Amino acid sequence: MMKVGLIQTRTPATLDAALAHLEPLVREAAAGGARLIATPEGSNILQKDRAKLLPQLRTLDEDPVVLGLQALAREFGVWVLAGSVLVLREGGKVANRQALIAPDGGLRATYDKLHMFDVDLPTGETARESETYTPGDRAVVSEVDGLKFGHSICYDLRFPALYRALALAGAQVMAIPAAFTRPTGEAHWEVLMRARAIETGAYVIAPAQGGFHEDGRGTWGRSIVVGPWGEVIGKLDHDEPDVLLADLDPAAVEKARTAIPALANARAFTGP
User: Annotated catalytic, 154?
Assistant: First the structure.
């Protein structure tokens, strides 16, 4: 059994303010007994004005929020999943990167968001992630105290083939930290999280950004943990900064996959 702590944040528009916002929530999760603490997408900064965002960004090993999370992992002897941090990558480009931090503070795995959210919403809001971020090109599974985690970020949620690949690679928990928009969150957030859990027979943990941010964006919140049978184990019914604790039982994954062996029963087919 593993206790996880999901951090729901309203990340500010500067790195220093983001760490000050995040740290007390991480401490609360650690005090609640969480062995793994997961933060949302964009945990280090949310600033949609590229002219204000880019000058603040650092590489992963220089980012003050990542350094702060590494120090907290060491202090409490826990795993920390930085759901994503916006960082400089090689050649001066930008990555939306997930980082798994071990109890000794070391980095154990990283994952760069595969799918870019480029959209014009009916509300008039637009998003062009590809203008700022270079997408990743590989799926990642890591191990935390014997439990295997599949890594993903926000918009990845809408691409079920990724989660099938992660499950086939042994993932028992799908991490889906997010900064979902409010219209799409209200319509699709919970049902898609439950679908990914049911399809893969895996847990889903989804720490979220919530509320109205300094840069003008609105995010849905409602952080959630879903069990491998599709049942909601825990959720926050609001968009305020908060902590959600839940227990993950590896035996539940095996039970769900035995009852519905969809991963084993799939067959290759020719196209229409």
Answer: yes
Catalytic residue chosen out of the listed positions 3, 23, 28, 41: 41
- Three-state SS letters, the chain: CEEEEEEEECCCCCHHHHHHHHHHHHHHHHHCCCCEEECCCCCCCCCCCHHHHHHHCCECCCCHHHHHHHHHHHHHCCEEEEEEEEEECHHHCEEEEEEEECCCCCEEEEEECCCCCEEECCCCCEEEHHHCECCCCCCCEEEECCEEEEECCHHHHHCHHHHHHHHHCCCCEEECCECCEHHHHHHHHHHHHHHHHHHHCCEEEECEEEEECCCCCEEECCCEEECCCCCEEEECCCCCCEEEEEEECHHHHHHHHHHCCHHHHCCCCCCC
Task: Name the catalytic one among 23, 28, 48, 113.
Answer: 113
> What's the number of domains the chain is made of?
1
- Tell me the average pLDDT across 47-58: 94
- Per-residue pLDDT, 76: 98
Q: What is the pLDDT of residue 250?
A: 98
pLDDT beyond 80 at 121 = no
CATH of the domain at 219: 3.60.110.10
Which range marks the domain in which residue 35 is found?
Answer: 2-263
Q: One of 131, 154, 190, 240 is an active-site residue; which one?
A: 154
The predicted-structure confidence for 155-184, as pLDDT tens digits, reads as follows 999 999 999 999 999 999 999 999 999 999
pLDDT of residue 126: 76
In a domain, 269, yes or no: no
Residue 41 falls in the annotated catalytic set: yes
Respond yes or no: is residue 28 known to be catalytic.
no
